[in-house]
Amino acid sequence: MPPSGVEPAEHVRCLVESGRVAEARRYLASAPDDASLTGWREVLAPPVVRFLPTTSGSAETMRLNSLWLNAHADEHRGQWVALRGDQFVDCDGELDVLHRRLPDDATITLIKIPLV
Amino acid sequence: MNAPISQELQQRFSGWGSFVAVVVDEPWSRGLMSVAVQCRLGSLTEPEWALWDTGAAWSVIGPDVARAVAADLGPPGSCIALSTRFDRKVGHLRLLPLTLAAAFGPDLSVDATFLVLDGPWQGPIVLGLHGLMEHLPFALHLGAHSGAQPLLALSRAP
Question: What is the ipTM of this complex?
Fold first, then answer.
């Protein structure tokens, strides 16, 4: 139960933020219907898992990407790069900007090069 | 082209559903992408590399990624703060379809929960515990010292 004076949604937020996710789920399972808890019930529910036909996932693609990354990553720290195998396609600091410039092409892989 | 999976690995993981290729600790990542997998977020055509981080409480994306998949994101919930390797970050937990691209076996699609950060994120896409890994029985075969292709094996069982 939430401490006295604490709204149910705020109680869940405090539990989640402090890492007590299982406790938050137990509370939600027993809490009365409350519109403020609808969002929490959605994001803390067990997800739907589906198996789909295999598409483009490839160890070979990752190996080729790694060849380029190990040679050029330092030139693009903090950026998203678009690679086709071991070939550079484009880069940008923001994924949405880069994505808008790219052709609709599943052979291109997007990788954020961490800023260290 | 999908990577072949060795007979030895097929026997070891007999009964598992999907095998996702993994890249382990490449020099370019300077330790920030210890275990990387390929995935697709929302309806993006292009696959993305993501960090498979068993130490992360939540999966994480930055605001630029959120803008790219805006049409696929669930509504934002309450704001929470999360301690990360790049300091304390604030964001909202939101549902986002995620597909793990298999090298062998079927791809696996999950309506995962991500912490969508309000401010800039210096790190990669992070795949974490709550709302994703906790619901996916998995095993990591890193192939250390064996030369085998590192793989993330995912069970068909719930």
Answer: 0.90
